[in-house]
Amino acid sequence: MTAGNNNTRQFRAVAMGASAGGLNALGVVLDCLPAEFALPVIVAQHLHPTHGSCLADLLCARCALPVRESEDKDTIEPGTVYVAPPNYHLLVENEETLTLSVDGKVNYSRPSIDVLFESAADVWGRSVVGVLLTGANRDGADGLRHIRDQGGLTIAQTPASAEQPVMPQAAIDAGAVDRALSLDEIGRLLAEIGSETGRNNLRREV
Q1: Domain extent at residue 65
Q2: ∠76-121-134 over CA atoms, to 5°?
Q3: Catalytic positions, written as ranges
Q4: pTM of the prediction?
Q5: pLDDT, tens digit (0-9, with 9 covering 90-100), for 49-64
Q6: Which member of 21, 119, 169, 181 lies 3.0 to 4.6 Å from 134 by CB, making a disulfide possible if both were Cys?
Q7: Does any domain span residue 7?
Q8: Burial class (CB in 10 A: 0-12, 13-18, 19+), 191
């Protein structure tokens, strides 16, 4: 943390995106979050559009938090992980509600990470944490930049540690990333942010 920076805020939510290699990466990060983690975690993971998804079940086996595939008009609850279903964009409609969309693909993807990140930034502004993990295209880079422009905290997996480095590297190249961290480091930082003292005291590192 940057001790001399007075830019403090209370975080309200985490938005997370991943593509190729994402199942393992998400599992490592979510495994670091304790059962008392207080923030909702909203996940867009690129999925095959015609296959049923067992992503929520797979992540639930590695996570102390409840994990569920989001439905349209889901109520956002603290300490819950929501994952986008196959072939739907997942958006934050307002501070209490998630919504699904079948609008066209963005960056060849539906769900699109950019769509999730941009909607989260528009609703929560500086109170959202954006996390971009492994992936083989540049989906998420523009959305992460939008989170940063709105004052939110932006985190990317270090490209060297990613199974597919293209996605986090694109975000770094776009100037969208406050911190580039390994998966374990991301998990530990989120665990701190999700604690009562972390949400009240975390200072943005610039």
Answers
A1: 13-201
A2: 90
A3: 19, 46, 139
A4: 0.90
A5: 655 578 888 898 889 9
A6: 21
A7: no
A8: middle
